[in-house]
């Protein structure tokens, strides 16, 4: 929309408001009067969930949830059989579940359906620096991410919030739907070009399609960073932990981190910059949860660097 039409649109709204007796008080220079209530952003702005016909056909919500439940049950059963599913009375499992219990009440702001999810939290003995949350609230952590990064509770909350955000924002459904669309398009395009040119370029077309999907995934990762820190901050966990977390990740991956173009994750510096840019709306959530003011918050203290 051009600036001209923006001004015209605003003028029409003001004219209608005046006719109805609801026009806001304006100063002589046209700005809203200083004594009018100011709108303060409450955390990260919530965007509507996607609800396209194509998405509902290619990745129906119930089918995704059913598939998630089956996969999670199978994974935990296999871990138990191999003796790597950490016992429920283990202090680390209790720690993860206590953090989740504080975070979960703040999830419905991002997806009302989360109120009916059957949340699960388990820990698997593995050197992998990873964690996940499947659709429906099925959370899994690997001991490697806790031990190798020497995570504080705030940093665990940042990781957990990030993974939960993927489920809340239905990124799995989006990825499956996009993959289906990309696969259909690139297969058809590859076949047409191959038939026209006489050369088989279907492999190249499929590679291009994969890169498109990877780009969508990086966008989802950026959204999950902010949404995850939003719900963690509301639960009383310091959002500055997100910066400490990615600094630790950087120190762990300083030997040959993957090129961002070919990675499903944005670079660490990119993520830290985005988190810092939104700290002005994240820290007030944390301060409010702690019953204090932002300027009275102590500096964030992390544990020792990644091992």
Radius of gyration: 23 Å
Distance between the termini: 51 Å
Mean pLDDT: 75
How do the SSEs run, as a string of H and E? HHHHEEEHHHHHHH
**What class, by secondary structure content?**
mainly alpha
Number of DSSP E strands: 3
Strand content is: under 5%
Main beta-sheet strand count, sense and barrel state: 3 strands, mixed
Q: Order of strands across the widest beta sheet?
A: 1-3-2
Low-confidence runs (pLDDT<50, min 5 residues)? 1-39, 181-216, 255-262
Shape descriptor: globular
Query: Helix proportion of residues, in percent?
Result: 55-70%
Helical stretch tally: 11
Describe the 3D structure.
With 307 residues, this protein is mainly alpha-helical. The protein is 57% helix and 5% strand. It has 11 helices and 3 strands. A hairpin with a 3-residue loop joins strand 2 (131-134) and strand 3. Helix 4 packs across helix 6 (153-168), helix 8 (202-234) runs parallel beside helix 11 and helix 9 (241-252) packs antiparallel against helix 10. It is globular and about 50 Å long.
Short account of what is shown:
With 307 residues, this protein is mainly alpha-helical.
What keywords describe this structure?
307 residues, globular, 3 strands, disordered N terminus, mainly alpha, three-stranded mixed β-sheet, 11 helices
Give the arrangement of secondary structure elements.
Layout lengths: L2 H18 L32 H6 L2 H21 L9 H13 L16 E5 L6 E4 L3 E5 H6 L4 H16 L2 H27 L4 H33 L6 H12 L15 H10 L1 H12 L17
Parallel strand pairs: 1-3
Antiparallel strand pairs: 2-3
